[in-house]
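Design job #97: recover the sequence.
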């Protein structure tokens, strides 16, 4: 099951200035509750790594394994902008439109090289709410510290040591590397599925 976050993808018509991290957390929590899911392997890709700790925190006991796919690894009280590199943060801030819309990254930035995949992904890219990048993660309990965690690193091109990797190693997450670009679900779906099935 792949919930679409409010304001993105096929729900882009719902995007507004008030769309932020809390709305996206509720999207995922609401899906799990409405579908009465248990024993969940929760996967957050890229920005959605910010959602993973909050969903585990709000649904303790329902998440069997938390996975961040080439995304942010935040601590309580941090925003996405706190955990990315300064150069990326500056580039994003300079590109924000009308003070609240972050344009989508081009497909090549996501590691997508095949012309057919580039065209397919480009048709589906939508702006991201800048508020969601600024909102701070708030955790109430310790559930996230107790759940097994895996970080899937997409390392083509190879990544330098960054804050996410530092935290993954310090906090003893399981680390899996895939020789593919940032959007592994597009560029290496079989390899990614095999990793997730093992969890």
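Job complete. Output follows.
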């Amino acid at each position: 099951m792949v919930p679409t976050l409010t304001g993105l993808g096929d729900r882009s018509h719902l995007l507004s200035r008030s769309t932020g991290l809390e709305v996206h957390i509720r999207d995922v929590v609401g899906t799990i509750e409405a579908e009465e899911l248990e024993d969940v392997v929760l996967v957050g890709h890229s920005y959605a790594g910010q959602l993973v700790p909050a969903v585990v925190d709000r649904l303790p006991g329902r998440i069997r394994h938390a996975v961040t796919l080439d995304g942010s690894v935040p601590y309580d009280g941090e925003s996405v902008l706190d955990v990315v590199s300064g150069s990326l943060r500056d580039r994003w801030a300079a590109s924000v439109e009308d003070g609240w819309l972050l344009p989508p990254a081009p497909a090549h930035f996501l590691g997508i090289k095949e012309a057919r995949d580039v065209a397919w992904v480009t048709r589906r890219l939508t702006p991201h709410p800048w508020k969601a990048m600024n909102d701070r993660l708030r955790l109430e309990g310790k559930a996230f510290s107790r759940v097994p965690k895996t970080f899937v690193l997409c390392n083509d091109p190879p990544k330098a040591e960054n804050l996410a990797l530092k935290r993954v190693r310090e906090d003893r997450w399981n680390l899996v590397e895939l020789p593919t670009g940032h959007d592994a679900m597009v560029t290496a779906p079989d390899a990614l599925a095999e990793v997730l099935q093992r969890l």
